[in-house]
Design goal:
By secondary structure, the protein is α+β, with helices and mostly antiparallel strands. It contains 2 helices and 7 strands; from the N terminus they run E-E-E-E-E-E-E-H-H. The C terminus is likely disordered.
Amino acid sequence: MAERRIHLRFPTLSVIKTVEIHSTDGKTDIPAIMCDVSVGGLAMITFMPLPKNSDIVLDLNMPDINLHKVTAKIVRVEEKNGTFLIALEFSNLNPAVKKKINAMAIDWKKCEERMSVGEKIECPHCSYYNLCSKEVKKKHAAHQCSA
């Protein structure tokens, strides 16, 4: 199956946050496990469904990314064993936040490519660093602490 995504995305599975959602039904705080983020939207896993095609306003703070009062449309809801994969498409995103998310996605992809061919990884200059859970980051951090 061909990749239909327009925007480069990066994983955020290690980030567990409460997503504050404002909808026509009122404000809801939903515990969510973030799957990935791009300038176009995000995917998260929740324990409650959200209505597909509804517009919401969300607040979410992750390391280095602050999504405050971002309007999004729920474009996909998939249920599996009592959990729900929710895909959101951003309707409005601050240009500075877009730039930061795009830089993080590019750095994540470059790191993946370098790792795949055995090149040295440069962690300190990576904009994805604070979200990274790769073994190479752990080794870099341990080396920094012992220096």
